[in-house]
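As a warm-up, study this chain.
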Amino acid sequence: MVFKNSDNFVKLFLASIIIGPGIKVYGYPLIDEYWMSMLLIGLFMRKIMITNVAIQETEKKTYNFHEKAFILLTFYFLFQSFRGGLWLEDLRMLRWVIFFIIVGLSFFIFSNYKRSIDSEHVIKTVINSSTIFFLIYFLSGYIYELLTGMNKFDLQDDFVAGSSTATFTVIIYLIAIMLYFENRKTIGVNLFIVLSFIIVSWTVVYYDSRAAIFSILSFLALNFLFQIFGAKAKKGKSPIFLMIIFFVIYQIWIFYYSDSSRTIKSFLPIDAELNFAIPKNFSPGDRDRLLGPKTALNLITENPFHTFFGYGWYMSRYEMIEPIQKMRKMENLKRLNLSKGKSYQSNGVIAIMVDTGFIGIILYLLNLFLGLSAILKTQNNSKYVISLAYMSIGMWSFVGTITPLLLFYFWVMPNNPIILMLKEEKEKE
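Now compare it with the structure written out below.
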């Protein structure tokens, strides 16, 4: 499809990074990387064989500050991938070299894209791809329980994505339906959005994904308040009545079905006196998430070199084993079963901190804030709600293992999916 028509690249690109992570191969989210590789190969074959393609010549291209910052981020992570591979002496680390090459090439294509990108088509693609993602996510667990009588959570992290991946998709999906409502208010469109929302909402409740549930409730509440008090122009307002119905139904839904109805405050590491503490009702997994940042900070501050440059990509899975075991012992938690060469799977931002040091964290945060600035510069009436949703990724990055997801890096790319959805006008041919 890309070989025949390069305009298809944008749609297939979005579908790949949204649907792809939902399927795992022996515990690895490789589908998005495979699809993107095929897309890039197809596009560059077209570049070689056909002159009229959607990529400019790069000699005259000048990069802005955000583009330069993202190039630096990509090359730094690529360097850390080589460094980690040499230290581990493991050929499997070539996967990460290829991974960041994909990220870099994708950035290059979008930075030199000369054809018009229709924001409406981008919004539709995001909605449709997200709906497919959650439909696959729900059906895999439901069919597995129906046929085997076993717990649906047994499938997670082996064959389908976990809740951390779902949270990323939820946020970009919510932004898309908000923008879709701004220009389309027909009954047919509203019914489609309702059906899509039911699929997404039911799935995150079914899997009791607290991060995704909290994201949906927060987004609906913020959007409702903004539409009432914040938007001055009548154009672009979402149907307030529909937003109220969504919010009320969803709260009732959670209360009667989800285990997360144990109240939001049980999610927070704060005691009655507002001091930092790990609540007793936290699961071992949740307690482990809170131990991760402290363990990582202790590890990288052992010497100045590791503070700035970390230990090399993927090294956190091995360097954190003993420190996290000691920390768990102090918290009266069982030792992790990491015998026979098993590695410790740390969460996203924590892994980046240990692997790349403060330089890696600073580069990622810089690109994140530059993306925020680009959103705020748009003329969209809902840009403030969208900005909050965009920045929430920084918080959810501490929750799960998101470093293998292409969407995690494309989120801060200059022409990221959110920016593409917010384009007010088509670019001239």
